[in-house]
Amino acid sequence: MTLLTYREAAIEIEPGEDVLSALLRAEIDAPHSCRSGVCQSCLHRAVEGNPPAAAQQGLSNAQKALGYFLACVCVPDTPLTIVPAQEAGTRSEAVVHSIDRLSGDVVRLRLEHDPVFAYRPGQFLELIADDGLGRHYSLASLPEEDPFVELHIRLHPGGRMSRFIAEELAPGRRLHIAGPLGTCIYEGVDPDQPMALIGSGTGLAPLIGVLRDALRRGHRGPIRLYHGARERDGLYLHDHLWALTKRHTNLHYVPRVLSDSGPHGGDVAAAALEHENALPHTAFFLCGGEKLVGRLKRDLFLKGASLKQMRTDTFLPAGSGR
Amino acid sequence: MASLYERLGGEKAVDAAVELFYRTVLADGRIARFFEGVNMEDQLAKQKSFLTMAFGGPNKYTGKDMRKAHERLVAKGLNDSHVDAVIEDLSRTLRQLGVGEKEVQEVAALANSVRGDVLNH
Q: What positions does the domain FAD-binding FR-type occupy (chain A) (predicted)?
């Protein structure tokens, strides 16, 4: 019986041996440092099988639910198929269900996937074009309710993937996806805990997924959703979110438009930092560009929020990974 | 006698201290600049590793790791005054958590014992 499969290759593991030692012995350049389950630099993810509890100590509930574990203290007694923490895993085929404009430069792409693509709302996947070109996009859909996988994609003028999406994708077209990845999910939130969802641009996609997941599971605590955009057109789900606040009294929607001087004008990060005050008890979801997420994470932490209660999805420029 | 790490409460004590300590350090104008642009999760994991070492707990941190980890900061001007500030922040954090003065002094002494490695002396 093969106990350890790494990127689909069988790795020999001695009785009682930890995963990191086995990887290093197989001459795999696995990152590591403390070798005692503290520093978390040897983080891997099990795509099949369940890592022992001892290998998940100190990880967040979201990470545990998604199969992340520390290789240096993981001595498996059942088979595990593992990949490095940042790797999407194997590719599979998906079919374009529909593609619609949500605003001037944001499109909604819905994909069908058979068998069902297993994910949690708020995670992201890798979308792969014909020539192997890949980009990460967040999942805005809810697997329990939607028969498709939904992505919100900002089209960048001159971007290779943007051109592929705008010019070549049409219903029925086949392409590949891999994943899911990311830990920006509802798992581990207490139903009575205040939640603050903060994002800009298509950072709204994972937040919508998390919001729908929370509402479906009967979240009782207050939920504040902050969405920022440069122009009014960028609040691409404004009417939908506004309507949603009428149906759910614990949901508050705070839109902010940078270029506007009206009641919804201003910077989304400043609005969130001003309004949030139940900091140590609040579950934060921060999604968007590196600058926004970095600023929010640091300022909220210094104001008293716990890093353990922050889930983030940072959008990085194409080609720099994520 | 139980080890200092056990007397302080083991991993639970480290967990309680790590965010408070990091928040204190980030808000300390004398040393905050050394943390600019770092990944906060990675940094928190390192703080946890450092605290486990400072509490005398199970940790395989070696002098070599310490030197390597701080090389870049020494190049940026890290010196004795900054190490003093970190140990002061650590002591303040422990007092805020209700740790006794004797244990605070022991932790400070353990942290001080890696000064030479941190500063590449």
A: 89-187
